[in-house]
From TrEMBL:
Its EC number is 2.4.2.12. One of its GO terms (molecular function) is nicotinamide phosphoribosyltransferase activity. Residues 228-458 form the Nicotinate/nicotinamide phosphoribosyltransferase domain. This is Nicotinamide phosphoribosyltransferase. The keyword Glycosyltransferase applies. The keyword Glycosyltransferase applies. Residues 52-153 form the Nicotinamide phosphoribosyltransferase N-terminal domain.
Amino acid sequence: MILSAIKLRNLPRANNRKNTKSIVMHSSPHKARDESHKPAVSHPYVGNVPISILSDSYKATHFLQYPQAKEMVAYGEFRHGFNKDKNDSRLVSYGIRYLIENYISKQWTESDVDKAFLFSGTHMAPNYTEFPFPRDLLLKFVRENDGYFPVKIEALPEGTCVHARTPVYQITASEEYTPLCTYLETLLTMLWYPTTVATLSRRVRDIVEDSFERTVDEGRSSQLVRSRLHDFGFRGCTSVEQSIIGGCAHLLNFVGTDTMSAAYYAQYALNNGKPVGQSIPASEHSVMTSWPTELLALENLIENFGSGIFACVMDSYDYGKALAQLLPAIASKQIGKGGCIVLRPDSGDPIEAVLQALHAADKVFGSTINSKGYKELRGCGVIQGDGMDLYSIERVCKALEAKGFSAANVSFGMGGGLLQKVNRDTMSFATKLNFISYGDGRCMDVMKQPVTDEGKFSLPGKLAVKYVNGIPTVFPQDSGEVAPEENLFKVVYDKRPVPGVFDSFEVIRERVAYQWTKLPRTADNISASLRKKVEFQRKEKASHCHVRGFGEGDSNGTSMNNGWIPAIAPTAMATVTTSAIGGVAGGGGGWWGG
């Protein structure tokens, strides 16, 4: 049974503080902080931030705010597709492994807890109560669970392609550790970043593949596709760690990268040493301007790299003159080497710069006409990496097609636009509580439903995901509709690391490539049984918002005001239609619309 309206005064608070001297919140701001459990360290900072600090400040106070419970469950989801695109709500779920292996699975120590406790004593705004901290609760799992954080985490397999509003992970905390259910939200929510980068990169690949299909003999199956977007984002990142996480997400879809930190990590930490990313020799403006003339610089490049493939930036001084004068001057030498030179504009109008280079190279090196009627340059190409984004790449592709050039002639680079120009709101990621089992045995499906922003509705109850006609579809876990072997959620952490749960990078790449193309751009991914729960919760919203009437009703639990409703809405309830609760994922608006 599910609790609809709670008599709050009868619910004991979590972690009752009787006889807990080390966790104190004084009613008077002038009382001294009780430090009867003296930490074993003299100073909270010893060169590194302890893992106990890797959460939002207010999370440390929530153990006093939750009601006493036997179990609490929270989940994470993206509320809409990339940039709120209502015509394409697909996303690539990726990045949980990094968080599990590098943070969640780390063993806490008493020293970690002590450092956080000392810090919390300095953290409260002045003239207010002492800042609370769950020291005893944290020390309990340090001593009794080998320092491993005491929650269970289920997640979609890395690289799973789903639609917005599909949960990507679910956290469960039980017994005395229920107040810690959302303590890891701060870390786990960071899944937004690699998933957003992977989705952006994949959508660029869609554009490139479509252009290849129209203009290249092999179409979208051409091996050249995988090198058409190059990651130049390392220097635009705020940290090395960001470059690794975001760079790996991009490498799910392409092999081209200059972010060596990501290529190395993906190869050795995620792919058993097998190469993942590739690059080529290339000049920069500092190289070109260090020579007395650009011609000497270019001749040196040809001498060293002309028999293979290399890129040369062409706008150090005058882009137009460089194309018109330098290319004819080095043509015979480069052709004699037999390799490929890639011309790189780095300023001006992106479309004009690409077309200018294509026409200049066609005059000097020549081209062939493929079976689809498009020109393909001989021994030359162009890479445009100046200010590129999802939409400008599409415009360039259409422009070169209109001028009769094959998409095989052009590659793209993205720097900050790939690894930095995204945020949590790009696909609106959030983690929310969805279920609680109270200390007296009663249960409640939890659903956030702010009237001021319908887009921030959350899903109620424990959740499961399974394929229905090829669509990852969300069900209530307690509906009996999802067998354990059908549930896409896999346990990736269970109060300690779970060995062997993550696939190699190569397998994940294959998963993305296969699933993305099979998934329709939008779909109805909410099951009928979950829709009933949602609608029932929305009808019950008033009873959650008002104190008057709580606990009233018949003792048999049939009245809406007595605090008891079924785990799933009664079968007598009318079937909820799509339009009744706001459309389908990615299109049509409403609470799970774009």
